[in-house]
What we know:
Strand content of chain A: 15-25%
CATH topology of the largest domain in chain A: BirA Bifunctional Protein, domain 2
Number of helices of chain A: 17
Helix content of chain A: 25-40%
Oligomer: homodimer
Number of domains of chain A: 4
CATH architecture of the largest domain in chain A: 2-Layer Sandwich
Structural class of chain A: alpha+beta
Mean pLDDT of chain A: 93
Low-confidence stretches of chain A: none
Amino acid sequence: MSYEGRIWCGTVNSRYLNQKIQLFGWVNRFRDMGGILFIDLRDRTGIVQLVVDQNNISNFQELKISNEDVLKVVGIVRQRPKDKINIKIPTGEYEVEVHEITVLSKSSTLPFPINEEDYKDVSVDETLRLKYRFIDLRRPKMFKNLYFRHKLIKKIRDFLDENEFLEIETPILSNPTPEGARDFLVPSRIQKGKFYALPQSPQLYKQILMVSGVDRYFQIAKCLRDEDLRADRQPEFTQLDLEMSFINYDDIFCLIEKMLKEVLLTTMGLEIKVPFLRMEYQEAIDKYMSDKPDLRFPYPIRKLDIEKVQINMEGITNDVYFLILPQTIARKEIDNLYNSGYKFLYLVREGENYKGTLLKYIQLEQFGKFLDGIEDPELKNKELYTVFVIFNQPKVKLNEIKQVLIDRRILLPTCSFYFLWVNNFPLFKLEEDGRISPEHHPFTNVHPEDKDLLMELYNNIDKLDSGMRSRFASIRSLAYDLVLNGVEVGSGSIRITDPELQKMIFSIIGLTEEEANSRFGFLLNSFKYGVPPHGGIALGLDRIISILLMTNSIRDVIAFPKTQSGSCLLTNSPSEVGEEQLKELGIKLLPLA
Amino acid sequence: MSYEGRIWCGTVNSRYLNQKIQLFGWVNRFRDMGGILFIDLRDRTGIVQLVVDQNNISNFQELKISNEDVLKVVGIVRQRPKDKINIKIPTGEYEVEVHEITVLSKSSTLPFPINEEDYKDVSVDETLRLKYRFIDLRRPKMFKNLYFRHKLIKKIRDFLDENEFLEIETPILSNPTPEGARDFLVPSRIQKGKFYALPQSPQLYKQILMVSGVDRYFQIAKCLRDEDLRADRQPEFTQLDLEMSFINYDDIFCLIEKMLKEVLLTTMGLEIKVPFLRMEYQEAIDKYMSDKPDLRFPYPIRKLDIEKVQINMEGITNDVYFLILPQTIARKEIDNLYNSGYKFLYLVREGENYKGTLLKYIQLEQFGKFLDGIEDPELKNKELYTVFVIFNQPKVKLNEIKQVLIDRRILLPTCSFYFLWVNNFPLFKLEEDGRISPEHHPFTNVHPEDKDLLMELYNNIDKLDSGMRSRFASIRSLAYDLVLNGVEVGSGSIRITDPELQKMIFSIIGLTEEEANSRFGFLLNSFKYGVPPHGGIALGLDRIISILLMTNSIRDVIAFPKTQSGSCLLTNSPSEVGEEQLKELGIKLLPLA
Lengths: 593, 593
């Protein structure tokens, strides 16, 4: 047996007409039509039809071929008669007249069908798919996902290599972090009582590489985080992790935009517009009430200026918000919203035709003038729109109304994929217990315009009160997220490189000097020997690929994913191990509560 | 600050002559010559000389620049006067007349020098290098290692992608294996009392991928093994792991040869001859007493046929061995061997000139005829050689003599890099306690010619005695190693795909059916649904790269290696963690013995 000379099933074409070829694959479908046998043979490239005619049928019938048997086939490629052409498959003009068949492996009946039509009909439980992953991955759709994933990551590597980035592997056996709680731990057998941690990210190593002068680093890195798994999270995930020296964040933005443009064009023929829109964190919160707005639906929540548009109703306070959508919405849908409990006024305009509850309370002319003052690329046609207005309610209600319309597919996306930068994230967040913690991570640099404020607050930290806390929360950082279709798919920042500032941040977030030194001492120490300004980003590849392929779940783009309880249903991990083995590691189990 | 418009230090050339450029880098050397300042600025591409002349010196002297400070520099590229050209560096014809300097970061005095000459002089302890890895990696040699590693792995990926291989990531959080002892374990917090294991290799997953029809899989995979670390071993290492369907081992050999030929040519301009020599395991043992002979020294240990060459000495038994080397060896070296305790006869021929102790006991003519019968490409010139003969001693003594001559650099390699396939490894090995265990791993297929023997022995396994044990040990497998310069750098096999045979092997190596099912049940189960014949290989990339770069240690080609006790001296991992954190994982420490 040799792959030299093998023809892939899905590539049989006119080049091989009337030639003897060798094929390997699985029986996708087998039909014994009495006088003639048809076998659809499948490999990862597709399907080709094999034919055994009357003269030879007796030789092959005794093989008792059934679906999913693995065959080696030798035969001659023939043109199919015009009326037998199968236009559904690329090889449909041809068939292979079988000379020899070797059954390499027999198959039992599959636990679920793998061709698209039958699969859809039976609605296979994901638990079963994960247990029989070896069968699930035979589905052409699943193979396509793995293939796309491979190609996309390959193109990312090509691009970064061309741009002078070095891929450098950082350790899997890393040091526990002080936050700790999310670390997976690995007991050391040689140094009993001590533990490695699996990396939550290569953050510290990549900063060390910048101090080393590597200048441009990247890694397709496995990261592990022991979190309570929400739906569509995995305990291990794959990041494109990168870091650059002597740059500001514009450089990171340009690089990632250029990379994605090139990679998406070559892998899926998708043309994306660059540069991506950049939005300040505060603007995102104000307009979309989210730090990851989905701008396929680019409709902000706005405040109505009641100086300019008077609403003739009692009890109206200053907080009147509106949402304007560049389309008419049917009365039925609006009634649905009412019936779901939302309270609003609305106005639907279609040319000179106005309808809706808002009409009673405003002057149309006034309102029209007000709208003319709004600059919004999505509102070019101001003769066709629907407006929702709320008052005396939190503005999130309008956001919910928008979401209901999206979920009901009344509001349709303006494009398939929308990338957005959200930048200038806060440096800190306030925990419920009053602690100040890093919004991003403690190596994030402060926004230069807010550095003085940081210094002022730090110098008065012994007088910390709630007013000061909220001023802390207002300090901006040089952190940014990449958002795709309303999902955070990347996160990065320009880093602190001043050891004094770094110590200050550690102190503000409540790390004692001893803790900081024991965990990050090597980084602080390295900054004493000439550190370049640097920054970077990490992109979540599982999620990006899942969004681009529009899969139902992130698990569909991972070959061997875990369930929400962290189990692999194929291999049954995690599993129990013997007491002896634990003893060798210097640990024992606590009795289960 | 922006990398757009930045010129790398090592790339300053005539293109930029008389132009204003922007540079970033570290001060490699700083000299204040009174009237004039010279700064060698370094980045990862090399060094360029900056000059501050008399007119400007006062502006820059106050910056108090010292070695390893990080600078941003703007200046104009000038041609150096003919007598000032530095031929040691590529930028030596030019210098940069400084207009602006910004000190981005100050450096303390380094704990050890980083330029090659000074570094060699002070013989830096590796412990210090590992602790200050961020400085060690600034050494141009270390950067070159990382750069080569990146490029080599990139080219491997390019080659495999072109050859229709898919890179597929397999889990880091895997299932404990029954051998167990070498597993790093990870306690599961969500499923207390259970453990993940870090993968010793992706073996089972890649076989599952073959059952899935992926056909050609590869991965640059991190593997982890909790062994007692010998010198130059790492608890985590990087493998090129690959697997193919519908092939025999010729296909793997051809693929790897083609890959290495292409990759070594493009990364280091090295032309290697393919196909590599293939040698049966048994031949390697017989001729070189090693399953990984170093054929840069292609001199086998041979048995002397004492029918053809009579040795006139009493007490000679049949076991006379000789080693013939195609060069003369000086009397002094031979005396050294005697003095080290080796006992042998020797003969040195140089044209018609014969010397040595062997002369007394043989007839030259007889011996000459015997040598003429030996076909050996290394022995083309049979007029210049040295022969060592031993008798009544284990033949390993001759191997030791050869090694002494190699270590003393008397015997020089015939080439820099010698790749060799050793194939048909034994299927089993006999453990000291009498158990039969797999020589390679339990998924390795039996050699077709030895399958009947396996069946015969298996059917009589209840009568297992020492004779049967050694017959078990004689069964050959379809396993193979790739050897480079006497080091095993790769290992693979054609796999078992017959579930009955697989069960038989599990039973022979002493796995109960229950154990086999609990650990490998999913693989056995998958074989019921149509499994293609398949095989693969894993290449140890750290080791290959280390040999190709001729580094002293494997640690020199790994960015963040561990010491022999498994410590990272940079980050101080592994380290202690709090009791609370362990409690959350459902474990506690055993008291230290």
